[in-house]
Design a protein that fits this description.
This protein has 118 residues and is mostly helical. Among the domains are: 30 residues, no CATH class; 52 residues, no CATH class. The protein is built from four helices and two strands. The protein has a two-stranded antiparallel sheet. Helix 1 runs antiparallel to helix 4 and helix 3 packs across helix 4. It is elongated. The mean pLDDT is 80.
């Protein structure tokens, strides 16, 4: 027999804790541990972006320094960052990289889909 733990309650009574006679813990709820047939299934339906690859290349070459290609792709935050980079002098390198990404079809839209030639 194990030694029970003894503690004193707030009102001064002695409380004996016998941990061997405790009921087993309840089973985990299904919301935290879903059954295998209840788990969501993810299917990749990524067929590419619905944006025009040719227009992206045109915007990237002609107005890429002003972030027009990023704004067209729906990535406005990167568009504003590209405008700020042009003011700092780093924008020409970024412009050249974006032209290369557009030509190779590796630039993404705001949903994460590649804008590529169809």
């Amino acid at each position: 027999m194990s030694n029970p733990r003894i503690s004193i309650g707030r009102d001064g009574t002695i409380i004996r804790h016998n941990y061997q006679n405790q009921p087993p813990p309840p089973p985990p709820s299904s919301s935290f541990y879903p059954r295998s047939n209840n788990r969501p299934t993810y299917t990749n339906y990524n067929t590419g972006s619905n944006k025009s690859w040719g227009l992206l290349i045109f915007l990237s070459i002609v107005l890429g320094g002003f972030g027009a290609d990023r704004f067209y792709a729906g990535r406005t935050g990167l568009g504003f960052a590209k405008i700020a980079a042009m003011g700092c002098g780093v924008g020409m390198i970024w412009w050249a990289i974006d032209v290369f990404l557009a030509l190779t079809g590796k630039q993404k839209d705001n949903d994460g889909n590649y804008i590529k030639r169809r």
